[in-house]
Amino acid sequence: MTRKIIHIDMDAFFASVEQRDRPELRGCPVAVGGSSARGVVAAASYEARRFGVRSAMPSVTAARRCPDLVFVPPRFDVYRAVSRQIRAIFAEYSELVEPLSLDEAYLDVSANRRQLPSATATAQEIRARILAETGLTASAGISYNKFLAKIASDQNKPNGQCVITPAQGAAFIAALPVAKFHGIGPRTAEKLNQLGIFTGADLRDKDMDWLQQRFGKSGAWYHAISRGIDERAVTPDRPRKSSGSETTYFNDLVTNGAVEDGVRAMADEVWDWCERTRSTARTVTVKVKYADFQQITRSRTIAGPIADRAHLHVLGVELVRSIFPLAKGVRLLGVTLSNLEDAAAPADRQLAFVL
Q1: Are residues 156 and 199 in the same domain?
Q2: Distance in angstroms (rounded) separating the CA atoms of residues 48 and 233
Q3: 9 labelled binding-site residue
Q4: Structurally, how many domains does the chain consist of?
Q5: Which family does it belong to (predicted)?
Q6: Which of these, 168, 29, 132, 10, lies nearest to 80 by C-alpha position?
Q7: Is the pTM above the cut of 0.85?
Q8: Domain ranges, residue 88
């Protein structure tokens, strides 16, 4: 049976919530994030995007591009509450809902729980419900697999939807620039371009061996998606793969001690999450961004789960010491845990620590 997949993506979610709750911001270019010299844009309204303001952009760059930009501090508790409202709507249409973040999710509506005439009509009704119940707009992509549904949701943003049928899939992918393929980042797109691959049609012309020799395990994925093949199912309650925390400092950290203290502080935030969710992990990654925006990461995976907060401190500090002595100031530090699992019994955690 051909699947019917919908990808719902809220339009400029964080910024739209702020404009909804503060009428004086409607129609204004808005950036959610800090306005300081070290601030970063978390989200931008469509009015701001017209000036080239984008998420993850330094706030000083955003303000330079858009002098009238209004900075608003994030309210993640509000965004999470709205996200729960939206997910409650999704649950009325399908048992197969796979959230990707607070503002987007896949739905498999093949079972047609509401007995609507098509997946297209289902997406329209879901978007109308979201607007009526939250005052926010959403865009949707409808197709026969996740890859195409994700791409389709971007085609008619904001407040629109796009359908890619099985009969249209091959031609749609053939004409699509590889830089717009979901999962192909700027560096991979550049490498593909250097190899003479600019569109889906160019990618489809390469056989499996050729792609695997140059892209390893990803070669098989590129071979499949260039032909419109994506067999991934919509998976509810997808296990979380990682949890992390990072901060950008107002002043560069210029001493070893300050950097170590920063890593411990980020480790504390991540461990607080572990305690709340009763999770632990086996892999620690420390992220360092220098004053010149050069970024490096250091990771370590241990045999058993991390025993406690102190153990995480030790691992994080050991990793960051590999960059000492500092050659330049540090503007950002982050600590991420991955290889997550349910917390083991205390005795088991201690045994893993000793080993």
Answers
A1: no
A2: 36
A3: yes
A4: 3
A5: Belongs to the DNA polymerase type-Y family.
A6: 10
A7: no
A8: 1-164
